[in-house]
Specification:
2 domains; globular; six-stranded mixed β-sheet; single chain; 14 strands
């Protein structure tokens, strides 16, 4: 029976979904343990950020071929002083404070300085940890903190690898910072020099949708046995861009864009190119059977 392409693809990818493997849970447990160790080092250092950080594990994912975890792009830090928000432009705030704190300058919170102070303490805590032995029996020999600025945002990452030769990290923490100031304070994140309210529920919903899309597309593309040059991180970035640029968020349109975007990263792109052309023709007709899609993806 012929179906619309989008409907047929959903049926196909849904039938290929598999339950989490035991090793998936292991990475979840390891990420929690690594997070706890970083927090403990902040306490040992008597950092100004000790006991202020929560939800580390929400910010990480596992970049192995058959594992993808929903991640939230904000790390929550509750600063132990109060602020008075001043609206300077629509949706843009300066945060006034009388606190005696290294990031308070001329009576206002300097968001860039506050972020960099946290990064330096995080970096020092990770350097003190060195290698991490987890209860799972895994040893993570390389934990690398990173900081960079892009389009007015400050991004922090922790790249976690079992060995240096890995192209994709086993665990990747990737986040901006969402600050609160006392328990009653709303959350704020920095964009350029001003603070903005963090609507975490919106970001969580978007992250959930993108991650679900990554998993469904990953399941289909794995059928081509693509080489290791296409990492899950690259696929996530390609899928995220396709998702955000999609006018209607249709699975078939996003899949086609992702296939086209993945082709330059594959050493032998011919099978994927042929599949892309066939799928594009099915899209034009908007009529296909599930058995035709199974043949295209090489599914028995």
């Amino acid at each position: 029976m012929s179906l619309k392409l989008n409907e047929a693809l959903k049926i196909l990818s849904g039938g290929l979904a598999t339950p989490p493997k035991p090793e998936h849970k292991q990475y979840v447990q390891d990420a929690v343990e690594i997070s706890e160790k970083i927090n403990q080092e902040l306490i040992n250092m008597d950092s100004i950020f000790k006991e202020t950080v929560s939800d580390w594990e929400d910010t990480c994912t596992y970049l192995l071929k058959d594992i993808y975890k929903i991640w939230i792009p904000f790390l929550c830090i509750n600063m132990p002083f109060k602020i008075e928000p001043e609206l300077v432009k629509p949706h843009q705030f300066k945060l006034k404070s009388s606190a005696n704190h290294a990031a308070v300058e001329n009576g206002y919170v300097n968001g860039i300085k506050l972020t960099k102070l946290f990064y330096l303490d995080m970096k020092q805590s990770i350097e003190k940890l060195g290698k991490v032995d987890c209860k799972s029996g895994k040893r993570y020999n390389y934990l690398t903190p990173e900081y960079f600025e892009l389009e007015g945002k400050q991004y922090l990452r922790i790249v976690v690898k079992e060995n240096e030769a890995q192209e994709a990290p086993s665990i990747l923490y990737n986040f901006n910072i969402s600050f609160t100031f006392s328990q009653e304070s709303p959350s704020y994140h920095l964009l350029f020099e001003f603070f903005h309210l963090t609507e975490k529920s919106i970001f969580k919903a978007m992250s959930t949708n993108i991650s679900k899309m990554v998993n469904e597309i990953n399941i289909l593309l794995l059928q081509f046995h693509l080489d290791e040059s296409l990492t899950v991180e690259k696929m996530h970035n390609i899928t995220t861009n396709a998702f955000l640029c999609s006018k209607y968020g249709n699975f078939d349109e996003i899949l086609l864009e992702v296939m086209k975007g993945c082709i330059p990263f594959i050493k032998n792109p011919r099978p994927l190119m042929c599949a892309f052309v066939k799928l594009w023709k099915f899209k034009q007709a908007d009529s296909v059977t599930v058995s035709e899609l199974k043949e295209l993806f090489g599914i028995q």
